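Blinded run. Sample ID left blank on purpose so nobody reads anything into the name before looking at the predicted structure. Input follows.
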Amino acid sequence: MGNAGFTEVTQLAAARELLAEYCEPHGRTQRRSPADAVGHVLADGVEAVRPVPHYDRAAMDGYAVQAADTFGATDRSPARFERAEEIVDAGTAVQVNTGSAVPEGADAVVMVEETERRDDSLLVYDAVAERENVAPAGEDVEASQHLFEAGHRLTPSDVALLRAAGREAVPVREQPRVSVLPTGEELVDPDETPGPGEIVETNGLLVSSLVTQWGGVPSYRDVVTDEEDALRAAVEGGLDHDVVVTTGGSSVGERDLVPDVVDDLGEVLVHGISLKPGHPVGFGVVDGTPVVLLPGYPVSCLVTAVQLLRPALAWLAGTEPQSQPTVRATLSRKLPSAPGERTFARVRLEDGHSEEGGDGTEPTASPVQTGGAGVMSSVAFADGWVEVPESREGIAAGETVTVQQWERPVFPGDNDGSTSGE
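Blinded prediction complete.
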């Protein structure tokens, strides 16, 4: 490859389709308690161990009674009960609170609003039917009920349900392990003061943070200098992971050695994708391990990580990539883009306002920057980006656009199998 430039440019959709072929699920599983399982993907379906609730419970504050004893009770002719402490017999009532167990012998609950206490007795002014105001055992979840399928990524509400249903542990797939290799002789550690021509390493930190957010386990390596032997050793050292990710050195300059090193160790499958920013991105495979080559410019690194690494982690975990969270907005001014190139244009969102001055239903999206792949603040200060397909040459002001909020922590799970916005 050397300095000859990009011999072939691949469309983003085709590149992702090819990458998916080399991201087979790793197959490793483990058991985790519900408290430690958020974000993990189930390796098998799970059922409830016990019903939820596991007892008949009062659905209202009031008094537990035998329903037959209330028949005919009215405001003018209340039914009289003796107050008891624990067990309900004919003609007795036990005070209960919402959620408490229905006492033995009771089959209904009278709301406290329909009662009046008179010393040790109770007047009931309305009749109740059998099982009225009683939530039966298993109303929420039945014993042995199937809860989740294999491949489901667990959310906080999921693990709460699992605990309530008596699951002490569940089988999950291990999270994909990612070796993150920042490269470049100009990079220095964050505790060093950079001199002229030096840059504090941030891409590795960015990618490692994203991997954690996307349900992977990163190994954030030391900076690797632009030397073939050092790069070769670093890539080989990461092959015990599920995927190796390099940052920097992915273009076609004299110091861009990573593609040649990966191609020498294995095979570079894609080098150069028609997207902006992030054109120099690529990926290959070494000894069966995918190696993703992210560009060195921070915004390019971010965009390409979202487009390639995020879905790769989903595939390795045995799920399909989940669509990015989005919001519809009105474009405040023209958004330029080149035809034949997929563009990710950073925008800021402002609340919409109607002519009467009230809040509108659709916010306004103002372009921050289309170019400037090295301007990290343009994404840090943006609220998302607009994805302009290859078939369009810009988007006119006033058009409604879809803003992808890439930084919202959504796991690459399996909602609809869509890869739109990846």
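Unblinding after everyone has recorded impressions. Residues 353-358, 412-422 have pLDDT under 50 and may be disordered.
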